[in-house]
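## tool: complex_structure
## caller: assistant
## args:
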Amino acid sequence: MTERSEGKQAQDRLQEFREFRERMNRRIFEQKDLVINRFFALDGQAYKPGALDEKTKEVAGLSASLVLRCDDCIAYHIIRCKEIGLSDQQIWEVLGVGLIVGGSIVIPHLRRAVDLLDELNRPGTVVSVDPPGHDHGS
Amino acid sequence: MTERSEGKQAQDRLQEFREFRERMNRRIFEQKDLVINRFFALDGQAYKPGALDEKTKEVAGLSASLVLRCDDCIAYHIIRCKEIGLSDQQIWEVLGVGLIVGGSIVIPHLRRAVDLLDELNRPGTVVSVDPPGHDHGS
Amino acid sequence: MTERSEGKQAQDRLQEFREFRERMNRRIFEQKDLVINRFFALDGQAYKPGALDEKTKEVAGLSASLVLRCDDCIAYHIIRCKEIGLSDQQIWEVLGVGLIVGGSIVIPHLRRAVDLLDELNRPGTVVSVDPPGHDHGS
Amino acid sequence: MTERSEGKQAQDRLQEFREFRERMNRRIFEQKDLVINRFFALDGQAYKPGALDEKTKEVAGLSASLVLRCDDCIAYHIIRCKEIGLSDQQIWEVLGVGLIVGGSIVIPHLRRAVDLLDELNRPGTVVSVDPPGHDHGS
Amino acid sequence: MTERSEGKQAQDRLQEFREFRERMNRRIFEQKDLVINRFFALDGQAYKPGALDEKTKEVAGLSASLVLRCDDCIAYHIIRCKEIGLSDQQIWEVLGVGLIVGGSIVIPHLRRAVDLLDELNRPGTVVSVDPPGHDHGS
Amino acid sequence: MTERSEGKQAQDRLQEFREFRERMNRRIFEQKDLVINRFFALDGQAYKPGALDEKTKEVAGLSASLVLRCDDCIAYHIIRCKEIGLSDQQIWEVLGVGLIVGGSIVIPHLRRAVDLLDELNRPGTVVSVDPPGHDHGS
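## result:
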């Protein structure tokens, strides 16, 4: 496969991740299930800056997602880390901590995380969790 | 139970945790198993300051330990967080992120984490992972 | 993407899930591995009505699948819940309990669960775990 | 060991579980951490009767706790199941589903769950999560 | 603490583990729950020699128990490994694989596993899962 | 679907797994992150023959991967098991142990494992983890 087509692939996956995420967040929001909607709100609140700044809280979220081996959660937190200004070197160090805590079982997720990070660094890629011009579902 | 005797209990648990941890680290180190000893060394290296400072790396370690629900690992990282100067408020915010990511199954570990934090804040408690006057086993 | 083509996508995924599940169940059954075949039989037995009715046992199975974050198991139990007559509202409440127990790491699986539930509710969708006219592999 | 002293032991463990749980719930509540306190409230809300009755929701909670192998959570939900009137036979069937979904790794937790259930059935044991005469911490 | 009293402690823990395990296996067996009793029987069957000998199957069981971080399961499989003749060096290598696959979160369980192994090697310790003169509950 | 086209599908998945694995291993290696590269080296070392032969260590790795439910890790260890000469019957027995320890939640991964094993046994399939003529990234 040429490097170009690999880039295309990763771009498609990123686009698909965002669209599905946003469509389903909206769908779940519209269900008006009290427990679930309140949990989504609380989930947003936990990462707001407080005694710890936003960057450190995203590091906590990314680290937890790595050791629990959830690709979508890892993708979300890596995009957020880039959005709020963590350097690639800083993100790699969180990947290192996650790998040591979680062991070799984390490696397949590490591969996909690095592939996403490279895609986010490709010129022209929009680095944001939700597509531009859309409201957040939660 | 009086509050005083509760303090005594938590102090005993903390003492026991440190002694067992240190004795077994030394025992494992002396076995000279190449893979295990190298992993222990690498484990130490992952938390050394780099692009991220030591505090942020300890936050990553504490967050991962919370969602993996390992009391000993949570205890280790909370003590390290206190040692290197994270405020209680900052530690509580990591507990909050861990609770949201990991769910109510984290609550029993949250209770024990808060109990330990209170013990570490009790006047006279030595805040260090290893007992004073001892070498680290790894 | 139009809503129609989304429906097509979810329908394809559902079809693929059933076909692969059934083909491999048959393949595994034909291997005649004693331990594995007995486990499959026992797995069926655990959900048979007893002191608890079938619906409550499927709720137990769905809740466990959610917190263990297994998409195929979640899909299986949601289809079964629909087959034996749980209402959508009841299924949403199980999703809520699973989300609270398992935390935000469950959210990507919740999104796929809700997408499947919507597909099962689309006019013309056959709500059964195995394709019509086929025997169960186990 | 005589059966009588075993009963004493289980009773002590049950008493200790309740006291620590209640003391720390109160301690956490008093910290007034917004994210954590809201999560505790939401945790209570998820089990309130709705389209599913309280018993079915407790079954969902017990099943999830079994496969996630959390002794304190299993203990909590077994006591709640008894409090709201599930029969022992019904609880055993949830244990069976949890064992099949989660595998032999659940067995040590199953042993402790059955030991607790026997203790709750011992004449004179108070079947409630919190000691009488105390307010809930959350 | 003197080395002697440490030995005493480990010996007590080993004794307690065996007694509780045996008492509860018998209790569960007597309940005559079909699903649970059949699962216990199947659990025994999976480790019987076949195309793989008993030692290799115990290695598989120990490795799985390590990465799932279940102390009782680790203890059971280490005692079985010793009973059927694996050398300490061989057991240490399984501990190494489990540590690498499962990561640093395995370390507290590794410490307790090594402590148990040392206790089993202490002159006079009976190396068997169940106390002598007792029938197995399953 | 004809059996032929199923074979084609499995072959494509196997090819894709190898190419992505190798490309990302090389990418990660070139990043020269000390902690991560050392961990990859240590991961290779843990499976080298010692007191246990290579086959037994691969059994330990496969068993751990099954209960942690990581498809890529299961695929890697099954290919390795075939490469170093474990018989299909031996691999099936490890699948059996993994299923019993990990429970029904392992079944979807068991299905994919058996599908891969069948593909590896198809005449003309190259049984190796990395594509021929390529260097290992780690």
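## assistant note: The CA atoms of residues 10 and 116 of chain B lie 7 Å apart. The first helix of chain B runs from residue 3 to 30. Handing back to user.
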